[in-house]
Model the fold of this input.
Amino acid sequence: MLSLASADALLAPLAEETALLLAVSGGPDSTALMLLASRWSLREKIRIVVATVDHGLRAASREEALFVAGEAQALGFEHRLLVWKGDKPLTRLQERAREARYALLAGCAAGIDPRCAIVTAHHADDQAETILFRLCRGSGVAGLAGMAAVSTLHDDATSQIRLLRPFLEVPKAALEAICAEAGRAYVTDPANADPRFARARLRALAATLAAEGLDRAALLRLGRRAARAEAALRRCAAYVEESARIEGDEATARFRAVTLRGAPDELLMRLIETQTARFGSAPRLDRLERALQQVAQALARREAARMTLAGALIDVDEAFLSFRRAPPRSPRIRSDRSPAPTSRAPP
Done:
């Protein structure tokens, strides 16, 4: 059974870090992370800072953030209060709040130490919920693998911040028990049960799904299998990309059509995704799949094709598949039938 005495075992994945920024919202999971860090044998060797993001979405959010600040300081940690400023979006609120949270955390970590990593308390229940959420959204293999224990955030164009999730195999109940053992209060976010949000609706279905066999263990098993498949696909895609690549300049990437012709669609799609992100931005999966269909068809028929995808220009001909940055769009030309502009001010 896990307890505060398990700190060294639970935080072992963080042992090689120079500095850590703990993301602590005040909920039981992140409070347990902070409590375990306070008992960690390496605490004095690694600089540890606690950060709380005040999203400003609820009247109590500032009070809760200050509560966390007091708890962190009582445990001897530096604390940073990060505020999401400006108008809040009316749609995709949780997604955009998450983006803002990670941006604030990345900026804070970069200011602490160039090598500072962010640590979150995402646990096994969060992982299962993420896999279920992505399954409902029709995610690909990479999405079904769930959250990675180690990933990267971008603070700006040149700075990369590592994001560490050491608790992905730890049940939520175990983290709640650690808070109880320490006698520490924690914050309960009412959004976790708000039916306006998809994740809250999925939580309400948990018992029904578990009765049909889709419980936490089954979802985590799916995630592990998807992660293995994703690792294999990534390696195969890299091999195909290198085999087909033609050395060129930074402005254009070219690949031999003969090498790509007949390649599995999944590997070809990954090449398109990688190169599009290099010259434009990461494309949405549905748009990527449409581009794949066009490229694969042109390669198979030895036909020419041209398309843009997420800011990248893709060209196919009998010999090559090439990528470069798409030129700026030309301004739309006013139709002759459109009313001519006037100099009169609007009423």
User: Anything to note?
Assistant: The chain is about 45% helix and 15% strand. Residues 20 and 48 are 5 Å apart (CA to CA). The radius of gyration is 24 Å.
